[in-house]
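Intended use. Records like the one below are meant for learning the mapping from a protein sequence to its folded structure. Do not use them to infer anything beyond what is encoded.
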Amino acid sequence: MRRTLQALADFFAKRWPHLNAESDFQRKIVSRLCMVERNIMLPIKLGLILVVLRFLFFSAEVYPSPHSRAVALDTVRFFFVIYLLITVGCSIMIAGIRTLPLWYVELVVLIAAILDIILLSALTMITGGLNSPLFWFYLLLSMRNSLSIYSPTTQITVNSLTILAYLFAGLTDIRIAQIEGESIIANTDSLALRLVILGAMTLFSYYFQTLFDKLRRAEGDAREFQIRQEQLQATGRLAAEIAHQLKNPLGIINNAAFTLQRTVKEGKTITQQIHLIREEVHRSDRILTDLMGFAQLAEGTVQPLHLASELDEAIEQVFPEALRGEVTIKRQYDTALPSVMMQKGHFSEIIVNILHNARDAMQGKGEISIKARLAEGFAVNIALSDTGPGMSQELLDQVFEAYFTTKEKGTGLGLAIVKHNVEIYGGKLMVESQLGAGTTFTIQLPARALIKLRKAQE
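Structure written out for the chain above:
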């Protein structure tokens, strides 16, 4: 049994990776299901099953065999046996709730809830129909559904099914009474009041779950914001500290070299070496200036970014409609992409730099493809491909190195900064290219830093 469940979990994990993505929210859901379904519902359900078993097989009123109520009672008994067998299986799975995938537990809970509704409806039919004292158990089921089914749409559907089941049981009881010529006792006002109570409970449960979802999202976004901000602030402080500590000695070296150059009147070789020292010092100073600029950027504010609109904005910056020329842009975005919590400036710099390189490589002619999709582990993959001349393996090995460039006026910092910007968010930057076959840069960003941090702690 365990192997079958694991095989199903692996299948769903590959086909829909976000179903098994671990998060604080999912752990809370599992804890809530443990409390409601295992710790509370299982003991209560066991006691109620014993009561129903005694009532159906030992205490129910006996009717002559052809009587419609005898047929209804036999049907309820037959269903109860089936219900008992399925409930035992569901109870065993709920008892081991923490060892099963969340999607599987949700399915088991949903099946159990629907079976409980059907059984309650069947019992209502043989205990008075619309006037049955079992009416109050429908309210308890609605409360249970609001706690165990966290999807608002599924919850309101199941609770609506509860109301329909109550009506069906009552109408069936009335129909049986008509067939047997029994007197029908129906209080319209009482029925209307009961339906209003059930509807109010359904709406209250839906409102409660919607409010819970909003609070959960707000809490998750706040924690995500705090983690991202702390990551960037730590990176920025480190960069600023390194830059500050190195600028002072470089300034002293530069002054000493300048003084030495003015003092030495003879020795051409010495003068050339001193000149070389000054050039390298100036170059190092530019590096540190760039690093300090990046440190200032890292002190900015993170925010949830809608990937499709941010990608479109970056494309418009590099390839405005009026100047697009002979470049064709193809876009392919998944419809259910999650937001990514990061700085708008960082994300824009990543995409714009790669698109600039693609534009320069194609020399204004060709096709650029941008694909964004949900990847395994609740990550987002962004692939940017061009139809340029491509790169050799030698160039691929050096493409992310600082100051390596094939452009006459390039600084060689663009892709190095892009790689750094991706990695500070726990992401990955990969490149694939062949001579004559274009180049593809793939950016993988975790939608939630919480996932990465938790796994690192474990």
